[in-house]
Amino acid sequence: MRVIVLGLGVVGAAVAANLARRGHAVTVLDAAGAPARGTSSTTFGWVNGNNKQPPHYQRLNADALREHVRIGGEDAGWLVRTGHLEYATDDDHRSRLTARVERLRDAGYPAEFLGREQAARLEPDLRVAPDALIGWFPGEAHCFPELFVAAMLGSAPVTVETGHKVTAVTGDGTVHLADGSRRTADQVVTCLGRHTGSLHPEVRMVEPEKGNAVMGFLGRTAPVPVRLSRVVTTASVNLRPAGGGSLLAQTLDQDVHADPDGPAPEHVTETMRDRIAGRVGVPVRIDAMLVGQRSLPVDGLPVVGPVAPRGYVVASHSAVTLAPLLGELVARELTGEEQERLAPYRPGRFAGEFATVRPARLPGEQ
Length: 366
Ligand SMILES: Cc1cc2nc3c(=O)[nH]c(=O)nc-3n(C[C@H](O)[C@H](O)[C@H](O)COP(=O)(O)OP(=O)(O)OC[C@H]3O[C@@H](n4cnc5c(N)ncnc54)[C@H](O)[C@@H]3O)c2cc1C
Known about the structure:
Residues 1-16 form the signal peptide. The strands form 4 sheets. Strands 6-7-5-15-16-17-14-18 form an 8-stranded mixed β-sheet. Among the domains are: 2-44 and 145-206 and 297-351, 3-Layer(bba) Sandwich (FAD/NAD(P)-binding domain), CATH 3.50.50.60; 207-293, Alpha-Beta Plaits (2-Layer Sandwich). By secondary structure, the chain is α+β, with helices and mostly antiparallel strands. It is globular and about 60 Å long. The model has no long low-confidence stretch (mean pLDDT 96). Helices cover 27% and strands 25% of the residues. The protein binds flavin-adenine dinucleotide. The site of flavin-adenine dinucleotide has 41 residues, from helix 1, strand 2, strand 14, strand 18 and helix 9.
């Protein structure tokens, strides 16, 4: 089968590699000048099945985390499975964390509480209130998405063509490019992330607006002389290693100021800097402040399935977590094995009214 995959973020890379490994002739087209220039380069990259609802979606994320491990993410270097610590210091957060740890444990997902000293052995330089309730999720991980994309492309014979903006795709497998040319394939798989609606308006994505659920800041620090080895979430700031001693941070309550048309305001950068410094106990400098835009279907769930006889769409939030599993399931489905577990995520579900998904503002949300 000749397949054209549109979009070369984590999703397009995983879909392309899984199809190419099965012997299909796969070409990936992307508008950007290089792979992984979309949301996959402005992400917190926490790989988890933690605060996901409903249960089928939690299981999908938990299985995707296992898939990252199964296909060798740790050896290849895109996956760092050092777990996740969540610190709750107010009553509301404590009760939400308690309920979540119990629910996840009941579902067979590794989740427990740690004492202060046990947590301090894991993160000796972290400063948190002595009476914090500490949740520990030992199986979780953080990802370097560019390395994931590189590993996918290196794992199978995929033809990559960057700098090709797609303007339309028709149900007979014809792809129209901005330069006026056309390509045809037996199957076209759209993996355009937040731009999915530009080719498939029937797939309802949340449009970016200042402070809505799509928008999120990410700050990358200059190298900091502290030991921080894993994802850490607290009410004021989320942290993870970003490589070379730098940290990646989120301040979810500040995301109300994130504007799709502008840079991060100075006060947001200062707030993030001060909160990171408070957690790690040394001054920090933020080298890069990014304004991320999530790829977010209106109900918050993935969109995966056929939209035409030769057209198929994959778009999702949390796709750094989900990409390897979605790649595998989509490749199976496109080679004739319908995947029952994709049934809740079909593109046809958007006919009626939808309540727009709530922004991620609380620790453990993403
Ligand atoms: C602030 C923030 C924090 C996040 N944190 C997490 C997290 O902790 N864990 C997690 O799992 N997920 C997280 N996510 C979500 C995750 O990053 C995304 O779901 C994922 O990166 C989407 O990947 P994608 O491949 O679908 O899209 P993208 O990476 O955006 O790739 C789409 C590609 O399509 C190309 N394209 C677009 N339009 C066209 C066109 N017309 N023609 C050709 N090419 C085109 C783009 O150039 C791009 O390369 C976060 C996102 C944000 C914004």
